Amino acid sequence: MEAKNKILVANIGSTSFKFRLFEMPAERLLARGSVERIGAPRGAWKAQVGDARPEEGEGAFPDYGAAIALVEEKLRGRALDGLGELAAVGFKPVMAKGISGTQLLDDGVLAAMEALYTLLPAHNPPYVKAVRAFQARQPGLPCIGTFETAFYDSLPRARRRFPIPLEWEQKYGIRREGFHGASHRYVTERAAEIRGTKKLRMISCHLGGSASICAVRDGVAVDSSWGMTAQSGLPHNNRVGDFDVFAAFYVQKLAGLSIEQMEAALAKEAGLKGMSGLDSGDIRDVRAAANAGNDDARTALAVFVDSIRKYVGQFLVELNGADVLIFAGGIGEYNPDIRAEVCAGMEFCGLRLDPAANEGAVGREAVISAAGSAIEVRVIPTNEEIIIARNAWEKLGHGRER
After folding, report:
1. How confident is the model at residue 122 (pLDDT cuts 50, 70, 90)?
2. Could you give all domains of the chain from N- to C-terminal order, each with its CATH number?
3. Can you give the pLDDT at residue 399?
4. What are the residues whose beta carbons fall under 8 Å from the beta carbon of 98, sequence distance 6 or more?
5. Maximum Cα–Cα distance for the chain, whole Å?
6. Are 31 and 71 in contact (CB under 8 A)?
């Protein structure tokens, strides 16, 4: 019997299922696509096999099972004969209680994810539902997840601790974590590949609807902008980022809000959306409003940039300088203006941007620092899916886990 060598990577959102199908170990991309608005009365789908023209359509997808069935149908006979042909499905779940790394998503691991539903209400439930949908449709199909926390498993304890009572850490597991692990791993490994060495001090900026900064020394993460949850660190599209907890208590009492209402406000109405006062926290909408004279939108962008610069400065101190500064993610890859604002006034550490190179680097890999800059600045489009595929393949026994 021919060995199975196809990995389907499933990127799960609260109402979406994006996928890429890889042939391993060649890492050849066979197909890609998405199903959107799962659970709504009417959804949309897109599928592309190889270099063929993408197909698009609409349909009703009441749950992840229906979305998976649609994907299987669209790929059947072209890139995949059915789910039974897969070696595994790869996932990038966020976090599980007491578990990290790359794991077979069995009942025990899923239970550890369910234990954090209160902490990660927008992330964990969709992933658990999707895994169970795959398991129901194709019993015995390995579902393998690389947790977003995995890249940070070696962080020094001093960079994991909050200044809280020791009992909270020991009894409840309250500590700093790290996310966007697959993205930071990919772009820093790619930079090391380009430079021909892992012996590098790197600062990776994943900037998008969700954003974070990571410090990496010799290929290992040593610090992160995250706190314990994806609600922390930099301001996000509509999530709060770092915020004084006592200010939250104060607002809650004054406004008479319940815990659930506070959670909703900080998770859905804060960040760039909240600061700008707009209906959207999308950077394009905020920039357009700022350019049109909206001072709140202009201030929101300034807060976002200042937060990035704060962590870059902190990590320059922790790393004793840097060899490479990387921009990735939708904002990092497509916004020369944000990159220029982040890098402004950094001549003190030898960083000089090439304005023309920066303006020309939109959605593609490029060096945007000036010749002779002490710190090389790169744009590297991220590829989280290939990291997930590699780890799933390796978990099956075909190599070393990362």
Report:
1. confident
2. 6-147 (3.30.420.40), 195-384 (3.30.420.40)
3. 66
4. 112, 173
5. 68
6. no
